[in-house]
Amino acid sequence: MNALIVSGGWPGHKPLEFAEVLGSLLQSAGFSVNQARSLDVLDEPLDAYTLIVPNWTMGKLTGTQSANLRAAVRGGVGLAGIHGGAGDAFREDTDYQFMVGGQFVAHPGNVRPYRVNVVAHELTAGLSDFDVVSEQYYMHVDPSNTVLATTTFDGTDAPWVEGTVMPVAWTRRYGEGRVFYQSVGHTPSDLDGAAGELTRRGLLWAANVSQEVLS
């Protein structure tokens, strides 16, 4: 099992620090991890990887890079990521957004306390609702996603969305590939506890090692 983590973009999301956290989760599950610091790695075919983890807030893919990434996932390579590193990446690339299943549009109030409600699913077995202090992502989300967790906006900073239930984590298919995303993760400490465990399970699910997800 080999994974590619592509890290960079807006430095406020601490891509290099998150690369270490995500890499550690994968290495502990037996993955060989290639840590890339440039999008140039996407210029070549990617079908030799088991899993690709975009960890690149904003930025821009070339047409070749976008096509190679999407072709790999359509062909069966897993894709998994968190927060802005995957859900606010490559804003101009709607084909990328279609693959991920959602796109960040706002985080009213910036960093704030909120609750994550876990949806019953084999990937969330044994996990309970949990509280975080992070950016509560408001996203445009594909209705075909399988939702694993949600959050409800209280309207404090954007009264017009009070009561809106927003997906926090989901899985989906893109061709033959498995895709996992979850929006918690503004700072590495956000992945302590339940958010980190959900991320670990999602990474492994996307890589199609489901027999290990709950171990």
From TrEMBL:
Q: Which Pfam families match?
A: ThuA (PF06283)
Domain called ThuA-like: residue spans: 2-206
Q: Per its UniProt entry, which superkingdom is the organism in?
A: Bacteria
Task: State the coiled-coil residue ranges.
Answer: none
InterPro entries hit by this protein: Class_I_gatase-like (IPR029062), ThuA-like (IPR029010)
Name it.
ThuA-like domain-containing protein
Organism, by scientific name, is: Deinococcus yavapaiensis KR-236
Q: Tell me the classification of the organism that encodes this protein.
A: Bacteria, Thermotogati, Deinococcota, Deinococci, Deinococcales
